[in-house]
Amino acid sequence: MDKHKKNNQKEKRVKRNLKTLLLGSPREITIPGSRFPNGTQNLVPVVDIQKGVLITEDGRYIKVLEIVPTNFYLKSRIEQQNIIYYFSCYLKIAPQSLQILVCTQRADIDAYCDQMEKYYNREKNENCKAMILEDAQLVNYLASYEAVTRRFYLIYEYKGEATEFTEISKELADQAETAYQYLDYCGLEVLRHDNYDEFLLRTVYTAYHKQSARNINFSALMEQVGPVFNTPEITEDQLEEEDSEGITTIQDVLAPTEADLEHSKYILIDGVYHAYLYITGYSYPTERGLAWLSPLIELGDGISLSFFLEKKRKEQILSKVVKTTMINRSRLRDIEDIRADYEELDDAIYSGMYIKDRLNRDGEDFFYMHTLIEVTALDETTLNKRIKQVQNLCVSMDMTARRADWCHEQCFRSMLPIAKLDMDIAKRTQRNVLTSGAAGAFPFSSFELCDNKGVLMGINLHNNSAVIVDNFNSDIYSNGNLAIFGMSGAGKTYTLLLLAMRLRMCGVQVFIIAPEKGFEYRCACEAIGGQFLRLSPGSEDCINLMEIRRSTLDIDSNLANNIQRNDSVLLSKVQDLHTYIRLRYPQITPEEAYQLNIAILECYESFGITKDNRSLLNPDGSFKAMPDFTHLYSCLLKYPSLKNVALAVKEIIDFGMGGQTNVDLFSSFIVLDTSGAKKKDISSSTFVATSFIRDELSRSRTRKKAVLGDELWVIAGEEGNEQAADFIIEMVKLIRGYGAIFVSATQNTLDYFALRDGKFGDALLNNSRLKLLLQMEEAEAIKLQEKLGLSDEEVMQVVRCGRGQGLLCAGKNRIGIEIRSSQTEYELITTNRTDLEKREARTDTAEL
C-alpha cells in the first residue's frame, strides 16, 4: 500500500514537472503586506481602483469603457461602410494597444424570477398574483432557447510620461472623451456610469466569479475595500484596533475562493470550468467581409472573446517589409515555378508590396492582432460541447481555432480586462493587419437585448431569446420613455396595455390616459384591482379638482437631511383651478381673473383652509373636508362681475363633473378615459387628467411611476387640440425628474407630425430613448425613417412585420421583436372580435 501511495505521489510530481519543463516555472507573486501572499490573490493583478482607473501590480494604469453595441446587419450597405470608416478613423488616433472584450453569459433570468417572486409575495390581488406566476413561467420557457447577455468593453492602458496619478487619470479620461466622440460616429454609445469605481469592481469581479457575481451588492462591497495606491505608510502603533490585522484590499475581494490550475485541458475556478482557444496567426483568410468577428461573438452562452490590437510605428515596419520582400525576391529567382513553395513566396512578395503601398500611399497603419476565445461551463461535458461548437464555426469561416492546452492559466490572465496579453500566447496568435482590416473586424455588433431586471417585452426575432427591458435603469438608458408607432390593428393598444399590466406587477404605479376607445382598458384594469375613471359629461365617476391631497409641495420631504420647504399648496391649487376654468371659459377678462382668485381663496377659507399648509390637516393628521365646484359656485354668485364665470362653473356641475371625489385615487393602476369628451372639451379633460397625474408624480421621486398615453394622435393630430398637446408635452419633458417614465402610442404617423409643424411629435421622439415600430404602411415608415435615421433594411423590416411584431430601437441598438403575453393576459387585453365573441359565449353558458 505504501508502494502504491509512493507511485501516485511520483506520478503527480512528474505531471507537475512536465508542465514546468514545457512552460517554465510560474512567477510566484508576493504582495507586500498581504495576509495571503501565496493564496488565490496571486491570480488577481489588480491592486487598486481609483478615479475610474484600474491599477495593476506591475505599475500599469488601465481604463475600461463599456460600449452599447449596434445591430450591424440591420444597417444599409452604405451605413455599414460608414461605420467601418469611422471606426478606422478612431483606430488611427486610439491608444497604441487596445483590448476589446466581449463577455457572454446566460441572461440573469434567476434575477428576473427572484424579482417576480418578491412582487408575488407583496401582491394582494389574486388575479395579479396569478399573472405574475404565468409571466415567470413564460420567461423560463423563453430562456430555454438562448437567453444570453453580452457586455462589450474597450480597454487601454496609459502609455504617457506623467508620474502623478491625478495627471494620469486626467489623460486617460481625455482619451475616453475621444473614444466617446468617434464611437458615436459609428452608431455606438459609451456608457457613462454614475459610480465608475463600482462599475470597474463589478466588471473585474465578474471575470473571477461568473456564477455568484449577479447576487453581489457592489456598493456595499466597495465600502469594505481599503485604499492601497498612494496611501502613506502607517506604523503599527498608529493603526486602529479593527485594522491591526490588515485591511481588506481589492485583491482580497476579487480573489476566487478556490482555483484548480493543474489540468491540461481546462482550469477550474470557483466551480466553473474554463478552457481557452486561440485563432492561429497564419489561419486568417486574406480577405474577409465586414464585421467578420460577429459570428464568433454571437456563438452563445459561456463563449466570450478578447480581441487585441497593437499598433506599430510605420518607420519600424516599412524597413522590415522592404528587407523581407527583397530577400523573398532573391529566393524566388532560385526556385522553379513547379515547386510547392513557389506560390507561397510569390504570395509573400505580393503581400509585402501591398503593405508597403498602403502604408506609404493610403495612410494606413500597421497592427498586430490577436484573438482569444474563452469557453466556460458548469460541467466538463458541456465545456467540450461548446469547444467543438467554436472549432466548427471557425472551420466554416476558414480559420483555425486551437486549444490552449497547458496554457489555460496564462489565457485566463490574458482574458482579464487589463489590456495585457501573455507573451507566449501573443506569439501563437499574432497576425499583421492594416487599419482597414482591423476596423473590418468591428466586434461591437449584437442582436440581443436582455436587461437583468425589468419587464418582459417578448422574444427576439433573430434568435428567439427573451427581450427584457428595464426602463428605470439610468446606467443604460438616459431616459426610460418609450414611443410606440404602428398602423391600425398592428397591436399598439395590446402592447401598451400589456406593458402597463407588467409594470403594475413589478410594483410600478401606473396611470393611463386614453383619449380614444378607453373602454378597451376597462376589463384588464378591473381584473387587477385598478380604478377605471371616465372623465366626460354624464359620467358617474368624479374627481374633485378642488380637492387638495398632499400637505407639501416639497417633493423631497421624505428624504433624510432635507430641510422641508413650506411653499403654499393652496396657491398652487388655485393656479390649477384658474387654468381649468379658463379652458372652460376662454373669454375671461383680467378683472374676472383677479376676482376669481379672491373667490376661490374665500371658498377654501370657509372650510378653514388658508395659505398655511398646516391648515390643510385636522389635529389627528387627516385631511380636512374639501370644497368642490358647488361650493365655489355659491361664492362666485356673491360677485356680480363673475356672472359669466359662474355660468361656466354651473355647466361643470350640471354635467356631473363638479362634485366630490367618488373613486379610489390611491390605486396602483388608474385608467383615465377621456374618449367621451367632445372636441371642444378635449383640452379641459386632458388638463384634469394631467393635473391629477402631475400631482401624484410630485409626491415622491423614489417610487417608480409610469404614465401611458394611447392614441395620442387624437390630441396631437392635424385636427387635434394645441392646449391639450401642450399639457402632454410639458409632462413628458419633466417626467424623468419625478422618477417616472412616459409611454406613448399612436397610429396615423403622418398626422402625428402635422400639428404646429410636428412640434408635438418631435417633442415625444426627442424625449423617448426607446422606440417600438410595429407594422405600418410604407409611407408612414418612410416618414419615421427621416425622423429616426432608419436604414432602408430597417424600414422594410417594419413594413414586412406581422401583427404584434416590430423593430425595437433601444438607443442605437435595434432588434426585431415579437410581443408575447400569457394566456390570461391575452384574454384580458385582446380586442379581436372573434375572441370577444368566444368570451361572451362562455359568459352566457355560465349564466345558464
Automatic annotation (TrEMBL):
SUPFAM superfamilies: P-loop containing nucleoside triphosphate hydrolases. InterPro entries: P-loop_NTPase (IPR027417), T4SS_component (IPR051162). PANTHER family: SLR6007 PROTEIN, UNCHARACTERIZED PROTEIN YJGR-RELATED. This is Uncharacterized protein.
